[in-house]
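Hi V.,

You were right to ask for the full record rather than a summary. Here it is.
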Amino acid sequence: MVENKFAILIVDDDDSLTSNLQDILEAEGYSAAVANDGQTALSLHDKSVFTLVLVDIRLPDMSGMELIKKLSELSAGITFIIITGYASVDTAIEAAGQRDIAGYVTKPLAMDNLLYLVRQVVKRKEAEEARQQAYSELEKRVEERTKELTQSNRKLTNINQELESFSYAISHDLRAPLRSIDGFSRILQEDYSDRLDEKGNDSLQRIRSAAQHVGMLVDGIVGLPHITRREVKWALVDLSSLVQTIAAELQVSQPQRQVEFIIAPGVTANGNI
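Predicted structure:
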């Protein structure tokens, strides 16, 4: 049984035929209404929404083609099946090529053929509705996702601005004392290195290296908010050399720890510099 959701209008001046058609279509689960002329069909259209109209090509007050034109102008989604006698088959064949006309049947009606056309129209309408529903759901999801992304971008912008303000504050508070530490250490090295033993000079160098390292970290913090704004610059990075540098710094900063570093030579990777 077909789900009763498609309303069909039968337009023909043959009462026996329209009554028989109405019974058959309702038995199939469709909602069927009857009009004996074009004007009645137009009046029924004003009161109900029809998915499919079965229309005789010859009506008492107007031609079936004229009625089809008027109904199409009123509702773009209506599909038509033409009912015709042998004398007007040529006209029906010509009309069947139009976009909203699914086909035609001749009198006396072969009900199997008519029901086949009706079911094809129903399947096509169901497919159109499913496609439209899927499109609407997709459009809704895209709209929701766009809204979420907009909100996330706004939050990220606010966080980035806060980070930028914080980094500049940190930079201002740390750079001056770091410059003083490095500067005074350099003066001590230049003016008093001959008065210091090896351990003293080494300590001064460590102080300077540590101050310069922290300065680089501060510069990195200041530049952090701008990372996403910069163009990515890919380059080959010598990982072996980088690890050797880190190992050397660790050995200097923590000489009491005896650690053996095994570093493979020539290890490289692409990275953003």
